[in-house]
Fold these 3 entries.
Entry 1:
Amino acid sequence: MVTAAHIESIERATLQAVAPEVVDALPGWLLPMDRGTVGRARSAVPLHHGAHDISLLPAILARYAALGFEPCLRLPDLPAFQPWFDALTQRGWRREQPTLTMTGEVQSLLTLPPGSPPAELDSAPDAGWMTMFLGEGLDPTDGASRSRSLSRATGTLFASVREQGQTVACGAASFGHGWLGVHGMRTAAARRGDGLAGRILHAMATEASRRGLAGVFLQVDASNLPAQALYRRAGLTLAWPYAYWRPPLVD
């Protein structure tokens, strides 16, 4: 069961990993602000999934406006937020990017095969990691923004599977607020299905276990069924779904 304490710690750990330019707050909410493309770094998020007074919405929007950032909300797809969905829809806001937050136990990741060679963890992304992360299928502007966000985060480790001098899979691990956070997972298209992502997760879990962390979380696009299948095999389950709510497009 995901408790209110779990939710708050996961959201704080998420912001630690994506390192927004600014993090403001209101009671029950974190208000990260950023000019990049990483949605989690620039969207207000609730710290619990109980009822939140909709009268707080203008104050949230005002905080973003006061600091010169475009507002966005990251809301759980749960009945408690229906008043927020209704209010934002009336304002013409758009619901986008349905995403799943998944959680599990670090110990379950350690059952994945470490592989040969195993993944390596580095304190900074090298050229091979960046090439893999910014490679095929990722918009270059979005990729560059995401890599900047991950690179400026404190304490993040960068995982790579290297074969014959080439990086064929990568990911980033955050360690904070009691959680291992999994981010930025990529595998070369020609190597998908070869268990490389499992090697990445095993290496991250080994380090998390060494640090005494028991829980793991990640966010995965709701349409990415192969990734979800991998994570379920690794023992992760759905904690909650969410989506981004963004203002109307300006012509």
Note: The chain has two domains: 4-99+242-246, 104-240.
Entry 2:
Amino acid sequence: MHNYYKKIGAALLVTFSAFNVYAADLVAGKNRAMVCQGCHGSAGVSSMALFPSLAGQSHSYLEAQLNSFKTGSRSNAMMQPLAKDLSDADIQNLAAYFASLPSKSSGGDTNLAKQGKDKVNMCLGCHGAKLTGQAQVPRLAGQHADYLAKQLHDFKSGERKAGHMNMIAKTLSDEDIKAISAYLGTLE
């Protein structure tokens, strides 16, 4: 019976140690995120229409995108220089920090959003029933309409590569893109 309690104690020690590491990661991520505030907002909610909000994105998605910027597989003149010097720990800490923050709706044109509501059904399978993302698929709900429209245009033109998204975006008209982006921006 004595060995049983030792094993339980060891398991609890490992579990509580993991919580301490996670808290330290969030603090380290918050400290590292200071440089992100200019574009992505002080709490991960961007106030600029062409920059995405990071608050509430999944840890997996954020980590994958930072790694893509770091390696150059995702091209962005502002993000690549910032990401190239991030360590794996920095990327994990930043992803954990932004994933822990509450998301917020960016709002938008409600009349245009009504037109977009019926056009987002094709998004639900990957981005989730509430369009809040899952795993390495991003949260769309609440993002700025201008940012989303730019991303959809980039997928449509092939400037941004993601096989499935490139195929879907090619089926969308400019009006569809505006309406879908407006609707997504109004969601929580």
Note: The two ends are 52 Å apart (CA to CA).
Entry 3:
Amino acid sequence: MKTLHKHYHLFFNALVFFTRLPAPKGIEYSQQNSQLANRYLPWIGILIGCSSALSFVIAEHLFGVALAILAAILTSILLTGALHEDGLADCADGFGGGWEKPQILAIMKDSQLGSYGCIALLLALGMKYITLNNLANIALTDITLIIILTHTLSRFSPLLLIYLDQYVRADANSKARSMGRGISFGGLSFAALPVLIVLILTAINSDIFSLTAVWITLVPAVLTALACRRYFLKRIGGYTGDCLGACQQLSELSIYLYLCWLIT
């Protein structure tokens, strides 16, 4: 019972941090809970993915595919408060406009959106729309499974950076400092569980993708995480919260691109 009670509080710590959804009264917020709650990120991904998939199904029935895709994208943005998109934009501004580590970190900390960030956001949202539009011709069951799988798996990628590297921002007031600092192998394994569940369900229920094709979605997600890791290590010696958001967004896009390649 103590273990269930602990995970109950960890889940809602993660929910409040990674989404705009409220938690029930009585949740214990602490630095320790924050540090342990990041293992729930892929579980939050299932919630975001199911909500986006439901929005797609409803909007597709009422308005057609084009607006259904927008509804799915908008749902994920509203639920997360554009948390990961903001990380992508800040990374684009920081790494695009800065040369040395202190300058890069300072630019990423700036709340103003620069030209690099604006371009990165436009490209990312445009690629999401185009890839989902290419996938929209397949069965409705498959597209909903893909949306759920992508949101879940892409949220495992940043945890690889947390496990392998170190958080480099020294600011004690940083919002992501506790949630983004460290994860144990046990925590990483716990985070992999929802990914495995969704992969199995997708492989069983998909009408168009083979069992092998579904499991290979792990490859673009992991490769994207490793590519991000190499780049971040080279430029700033580790990662920040914005780097984790960028990694999630790029992993999401890489999975969609891989699935588009499969159906061409």
Note: The mean pLDDT is 92.
